[in-house]
Amino acid sequence: MSEQAKILAEMQEIIMTILKNGSASEAEANRIDELEALLHEQKCYKEIDHEEYEYQGEEIAGLFATDHSMEAIDKMCECEITPDDFFGFIAYHDEDEEFTELFTDTFIAEVEKVYQSKCKS
C-alpha cells in the first residue's frame, strides 16, 4: 500500500468515526488537517505549470477525459504515479464527480493492465 493510499485510508476511517459520532473531536480535526497536508505532498498533487490544471493528477485526468489514454498512462509512468494512487486521487479530489461516468471499473482495469505492461517492463 502506497503512502497516499495509507493517508486516504486513515482519512476515511476518521471521517466514518466522525459521521458515526455526529461530530469531530479536536484530535480528529487536527489529524485530518495533518493528513490533508501529507496528501498534498503526494505525486498526484505535485503543482505543475499548466494553463488549465493545478496538479499533476488533474492533467492526467484531463488526458483521459479527452481520449488521450496512452499519453495519460505515459505521464503516469513518467511521474511514477500508480493507477491506485491516480484513481485514489480522483476519488478524493473530484468533488464535482465529473469523472464518475468515465472511470468505470472496466476502464480502471484496462488502465491497470496497460500500466503494468508499459511501466513495469
The helix/strand class is: mainly alpha
- What is the C-alpha radius of gyration, as a whole number of Å? 16 Å
Give the DSSP E fraction (strand runs of 2 or more residues). under 5%
Distance N to C terminus: 20 Å
Mean pLDDT: 92
State the major sheet: none
Global geometry: elongated
Number of discrete helical segments: 6
Strand segment tally: 0
Fraction of residues in H or I helices:
55-70%
Order of helices and strands: HHHHHH
- Uncertain runs: none
Number of domain units: 2
Short description:
The chain has 121 residues and is mostly helical. Helices cover 66% and strands 0% of the residues.
Ordered list of secondary-structure elements with their pairings:
Elements: H1 3-21, H2 26-39, H3 56-65, H4 69-79, H5 83-93, H6 105-119
Q: What this model shows, in words?
A:
Helices cover 66% and strands 0% of the residues. The chain is an all-alpha fold and 121 residues long. Helix 4 crosses helix 6. The protein is elongated, with a radius of gyration of 16 Å. The two termini are 20 Å apart.
